[in-house]
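If it is no trouble, can you show me the amino acids of a protein and the tokens describing how it folds?
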Amino acid sequence: LLEGIVVWLQRFHLPRLVSVVIVFVSFIVFVSAIMFGLLPQVSVQLTQLMQQVPSMLGKGQESLMRLPAMYPELITPDQITSIISTIKTEIGTLGQAVLSLSLSSVVGLITLMVYFILVPLLVFFFLKDKTKIIGWFMQFFPEDRGIADEVWTELDEQISNYVRGKFWEIIIVWSASLLAFSFFELQYAMLLAVLVGLSVVVPYVGATVVTFPVLLVAWFQWGWSPDFAWVTIAYLVIQALDGNVLVPLLFGEVVNLHPIAIIVAILVFGGLWGFWGVFFAIPLATLVNAVLRAWPTRK
């Protein structure tokens, strides 16, 4: 992500060390803004949302209880009661999981502080001494690397562009969602905008999953009203522009994967490694694609 900016600055005849220092300082400022500006606000809104869950459940229960009277042949009161009890159980389990996660994070606070010091140092030296580090590793490999060089070159180019493209996609979608949600005065606008922005990391699945909290919060705030309809339309427009305009503009043909290949990669790698498998599904699929493209074939 940062190497691309360093190379861009070097095109203006800046020495690499100067470019690295400028990019590294900008990186530290950006991370500090996320840690001390964005995360506290998101944390506060998440706490407020959790406090509102009981009242939301009550409102949702009232709406559900009206369904048997409206559709007596399809839904019975016992079915509604069963659904409500299941939802309450799941939310209780989720709350316990969040609490245990927060307690475990307190235990790992010292480790986290160590990472806050070590990771920026690693980033700086990786940027500053990139050529030396790669050269040191290359001395352990044969000079004629054949197919490995082809895979490495293609993978390096595609993954680099994918990471940079995803970063800008997250920033743009998050900003557009925040503007739309704030304009309509939707509650928990920052929290929901962050979720929408991060959802682009997992193609197809992320956008589908994050739709539910956005629409639920809007419905609990306004019910079936014009405000709810306008927020829904704005959200769907953002998703449509992201998929049909922003993604082709940022990525083009860099990640040359068919949608079926992407979905299969999410299913396979997600089944193997859970969340992290889904998170890295596209880079892993790109690796497989690069190997297949470079594989020797008989004429």
Summary: The chain is about 85% helix and 0% strand. The radius of gyration is 24 Å. The mean pLDDT is 82.
